[in-house]
Amino acid sequence: METSKRRPTIAIDVDGVLRDNLGIMVDLYNELFRNTYQKNLNMTVDDLKVYKAEKAFPLVEPILHINPSVFFFKIHAKEIFLDAPAYPNIKECICKLKEVADIVIVTYQKDYTNKKYTLEWLEKNGIEPNGICFLKDKTLVHADALIDDNDWNFLGTHCGTSVLVTQPYNKDVVLDELIAKTNSKQIVRVDSLEDFTVKYLKGEIVL
User: Fold this and answer.
1) Three-state secondary-structure class, residue 153
2) CA distance 109 to 149
3) Residues 145 and 132 in one domain
4) Residue 17 carries which DSSP code?
5) Statement to judge: residues 114 and 143 lie in one domain
6) CA distance 27 to 183
7) Is residue 207 assigned to a domain?
8) How far is CA 149 from CA 7, 18, 135, 203, in A?
9) Can you tell me the mean pLDDT for 147-171?
10) In the beta sheet, which residues pair with residue 189?
11) Does residue 2 form part of some domain?
12) What pTM was computed for the model?
């Protein structure tokens, strides 16, 4: 008697993978500081060589005397977590992946308000995964694959495949060096969730 093949579980991060909150953060930064302090300021997402807000947006704290995380993730939480645009075709990608795998959203949000905004954002954009999990520590993730934009989230996780979505702040990450620090069997780099979906469904990425 033939047994049915187990469906793989794919864990997917939100910010930087599904939701373009980076663009909103850059726009807020340019609008505030270009109009009031530096007329020649014209930051783009490509300028974000580090992910930490304190380093990526250096004018916030010395001028406003506010921690950048507070400025963005509390004062401007609605714009960043609810109003941010989705990356192209993510709804269609989730639907296609759900036909062959169980999809779990795994994300870290600092407080209840941002969790609420994230749930509303997923609903607004038609994202219906098999499950949603809010985790500060992604070492708790056990899945066949984890799709994330931050390489440090792969450290200590229990995922057979780590999938790094390219962003300006991870372009210099060397995958051969990264895999030695993880429990993964393989690490692959993709341009987007859409890129992963196409390659996975074609069999170019095997979990």
Assistant:
1) helix
2) 15
3) yes
4) T
5) yes
6) 37
7) no
8) 24, 10, 15, 22
9) 95
10) 164
11) no
12) 0.94
